[in-house]
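Q: How do we represent a protein-ligand complex in a form that can be generated token by token?
A: Start from the inputs.
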Amino acid sequence: MTFMKSTFTLTKAATFAAAITTVTATTGAAEVTLRGASLFDENHAYTKTLREFERLVGEAYDGDISFEMHLNGELGDESDFVTFLQQGVAIDYAIMAPSNMAVFAPAIPLMDMPFLFRDLDHWNTVLSSDVLKPLEDELYAKADIKVIGYAGGGTRNLASANAISNMDELTGHKMRVMGAPIQASIFSAINAAPSAIAYNEVYNAIQTGVIAGFENEAASIQNLKFYEVAPNITLTKHAITVRPVVMSGKTFRGLPEDLQAVIVEAGSTAGAFGRELESREDGEKLQQMLDAKQITVTEFEGRENLLDLVVPVQNDFAAGLGATELLEAIRAK
Ligand code: MAV
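Then emit the structure tokens for the protein with alpha-D-mannopyranuronic acid bound:
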């Protein structure tokens, strides 16, 4: 997608360097190409959010700018994106699960710990406040990744080859979790048998019986057709997703100041657009998959008891990071 404010036509650079800035011979003006990445196709809320970001930047910026988006996980999964963003190569912006950024910033998964939010209102209040700022600062300092907005809003449930409807069936359930250690700790605390597996290996791992399931939100289950191997959804509703819209710090600092300001504004607005979209579509997508007979949906008996098992693990995690006050501030919202 190209937003031209002059008559110059950008040539698409095929190199692996990020945020290409070129100076035209004709105008002397700097032109910027920014590269994004999405795990999904154009139908997913993340891609739509990133497209909205591009549109807003293109509209508000006075200079020439173009965008190249790598779709369908063409550049790997989020664990790859985080390395690219941190190094300032290959991509400049993306939407990321905090738990996939733990390798560089250990505290960041606190914002997407399972059972952190009571409900959508709580999640909304937290994301409309600046309570998560200390975690953003840590991410920038340690990973050189800048949060410019928050997308997300999907509710995560278990998805498995066989239905899991109570504590007995959950006990020892072999499931994939995201890479951050707190994810495995929390699912261990509720008696499952979690293992961290790369997202782009999950489908095969379930198909071949290496694991019996995973956990995810409706948008991604539908977009990547996970229902083909894990058609049984159990409504544990253990997380409402927080998905920062991020930019490589190296890229950001190399951009003209007026463009930086436009990007910060557009990131925040596009994030809010994405949150509204994904939270609104979440139930609809479950229903679409149900109607198409792609999934079954089961309540989890005794869901309320899971919290008792999880809260001490959340507390220990926060205490280990010196983030007890922050966790309390999030809970108090
Ligand atoms: C979903 O596709 C998204 O929440 C994405 O951001 C995560 O990385 C992914 O799940 C996952 O479980 O790794």
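The mean pLDDT is 93. The chain has one domain: 13-332.
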